[in-house]
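Table S2 (text version). Query chain:
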Amino acid sequence: MTKLEQHLQEVHDELLSALEKFPNPSNTPHEAFAVIQEEIDEIWEEIKRGDLPRARAEATQAAAMLVRLLVELDIEPTHNVHSN
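Corresponding structure-token output:
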């Protein structure tokens, strides 16, 4: 297994775990973004602490939440809130 495949598998596993713990989709894309932003903030905190293994774990969680958002946006009705 390549490093890329390993990371993608970890993101996949993290996503499945999150879906098991929190099976309901986000109430809004804004809520999903807030979860992602929180994960990004946690990555930054670990980087500042110098805990790169923990930063990597947080990055895996963030990637999983980004994939979840992709899936949720795919099932949402298509519209542009900024269109006239």
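Notes on Table S2: Residues 21 and 44 are 24 Å apart (CA to CA). The chain has a mean pLDDT of 91.
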